[in-house]
Design goal:
single chain, Rossmann fold, Pantoate--beta-alanine Ligase, Chain: A,domain 2, four-stranded antiparallel β-sheet, globular
């Protein structure tokens, strides 16, 4: 059975039955990282449940000078990947369908967590992201929503929103999918030249070096990752390399910190801004 393409909220309400319902939210340009999310959603929903993939390039989360118009739109290919991975329906609405009457006057605020790291580099980005996630949760009404761990701050903020505002949904993080050489899959990788791609490997190499140093504590993690990044061409274009407490996305500032942390990096490679992170147990 082919995947069903849905364009309106009214049509979306006719999708699915009594079984568990799962959603995977994307901006399209799907790759094997998205396929992993869809497969995880399918496993959760089971044969009797419903998996909905949303494909929507959300204008609210793009700032001035960012790549809204350049962002790849490949719906035909996305439908094929979604079907192969186990989706039942793809909700691909227009901007007018999601934001009838123009940009919404009432929005979700990401609060202090949304002003750090990615939020500092992209003011307002997380307000726009949370606003559309909240809308899509209302429209799709899932029992569980699946998001990639590569966008670590996004995942942390969605979990916080769901907890703080009592959304009746389970948020599931799915591990980052990587190329054999370590590069994290991203829709923006298609903008990298061959030279850019080689340079981009510094991100994952720095993160893996930091993870390997975790038994020696936070200072050793930062030093090991920083040494790799500083020794690469990409290091000069880094926005940040940070060891973060995922509970509130503040920098880990104690050597006696115990528990899970996120080592995160953001670098502009050529004309493309890339982010990556790894989970570290301290």
């Amino acid at each position: 059975m082919s995947v069903r393409t849905v364009r309106t909220a009214a049509e979306l309400g006719q999708v699915g039955g009594a079984g568990p319902r799962a959603v995977v939210m994307t901006m399209g340009a799907l790759h094997q990282g998205h396929a992993a999310l869809i497969r995880a959603a399918r496993e959760f929903a089971g044969a009797a449940g419903t998996v909905v993939v949303t494909v929507f390039v959300n204008p609210l989360q793009f700032g001035a000078g960012e790549d809204l118009d350049r962002y790849p739109r490949t719906l035909d290919a996305d439908l094929g990947l979604a079907e192969a991975a186990g989706a039942d329906a793809v909700f691909a609405p227009s901007v007018e369908e999601v934001y009838p009457g123009g940009e919404p006057q009432v929005r979700i605020s990401a609060g202090p967590m949304g002003t750090r790291f990615e939020g500092a580099a992209r003011p307002g980005h997380f307000d726009g992201m949370l606003t559309v996630v909240a809308k899509l949760l209302q429209l799709t009404r899932p029992d569980a929503a699946f998001f990639g761990e590569k966008d670590g701050q996004q995942l942390a903020l969605i979990r916080r929103m769901v907890r703080d505002l009592n959304f009746p949904v389970r948020v599931v993080g799915v591990p980052t999918v990587r190329e054999p050489d370590g590069l994290a899959l991203s829709s923006r990788n298609r903008f990298l030249t061959a030279a850019d791609r080689a340079e981009a490997l510094a991100l994952s190499r720095a993160l893996f070096a930091g993870r390997d140093a975790a038994p020696q504590g936070p200072a050793a993690v930062r030093a090991a990752a920083g040494k790799v990044l500083a020794g690469s061409a990409a290091g000069a274009a880094a926005d940040y390399l940070a060891l973060i407490d995922p509970a509130d996305f503040t920098e880990v500032d104690r050597e006696d910190f115990h528990g899970e942390a996120v080592l995160a990096v953001a670098v502009k490679v050529g004309t493309t801004r890339l982010i990556d992170n790894v989970r570290i147990s301290l």
